[in-house]
């Protein structure tokens, strides 16, 4: 028996341009910018050394392990062919990474204390990912694509906020 998610994308994979050209450009630019910042900050931190502000030793590695791979994987899922088996597998992995990053963000202390404005994006992800999954299962493909694109934008925006001065990755990047 086939599931609604399978029948919504059947009989074959959807062509590439499900996401519009402007959104495709923003997705690619966001992934490249965040990737460059992560590599630069990580290289600087591990070669020169820079302070680490987190007092939660378990939350930081868990958050980085879920948030960092979600950027390139999310871009790949959004930019490649839709509806095939690989899209569904990578999409599930990406959704779990996003939910993990959102949940672990609440264990990190920030500029404003334990919970700050950046956590609004975490709440949006915790609500948005399940809504987008339910949308595709109900056959509402446009709603699913829109929701997942917004969720991807949320993770890129959160990543850019992480490089602000005073935040840990900002300290790694700027010293």
Beta-strand share of residues: under 5%
What is the element string, with H for helices and E for strands? HHHHHHH
User: In which range does the helix fraction lie?
Assistant: 55-70%
Question: Main beta sheet, described?
Answer: none
Number of strands: 0
The number of helices is: 7
Distance between the termini: 56 Å
Summarize the structure.
With 175 residues, the chain is mainly alpha-helical. Helices cover 70% and strands 0% of the residues. 30% of the residues are buried.
Write the SSE topology:
Layout: H1 4-9, H2 21-47, H3 59-79, H4 85-105, H5 119-137, H6 141-161, H7 168-174
Helix pairs in contact: 2-3, 2-6, 2-7, 3-4, 3-6, 4-5, 5-6
Write up what this structure looks like.
The chain has helices at 4-9, 21-47, 59-79, 85-105, 119-137, 141-161, 168-174. The chain is built from seven helices and no strands. It is globular and about 50 Å long. The relative contact order is 0.17. With 175 residues, the protein is mainly alpha-helical. The model is unreliable at 1-11 (pLDDT under 50).
Give the tags.
single chain; mainly alpha; 7 helices
């Amino acid at each position: 028996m086939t599931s609604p998610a399978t029948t919504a994308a059947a009989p074959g994979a959807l062509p590439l341009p499900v996401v519009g050209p402007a959104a495709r450009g923003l997705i690619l630019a966001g992934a490249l910018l965040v990737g460059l910042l992560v590599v630069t900050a990580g290289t600087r931190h591990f070669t020169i050394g820079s302070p680490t502000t987190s007092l939660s030793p378990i939350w930081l590695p868990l958050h980085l392990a879920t948030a960092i791979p979600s950027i390139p994987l999310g871009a790949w899922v959004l930019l490649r062919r839709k509806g095939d088996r690989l899209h569904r597998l990578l999409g599930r992995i990406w959704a779990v990474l996003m939910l993990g990053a959102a949940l672990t963000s609440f264990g990190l202390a920030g500029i404003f204390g334990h919970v700050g404005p950046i956590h609004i994006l975490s709440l949006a992800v915790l609500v948005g990912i399940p809504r987008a999954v339910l949308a595709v299962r109900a056959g509402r493909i446009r709603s699913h694509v829109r929701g997942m694109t917004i969720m991807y934008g949320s993770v890129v925006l959160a990543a850019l906020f992480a490089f602000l001065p005073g935040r840990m990755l900002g300290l790694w990047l700027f010293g």
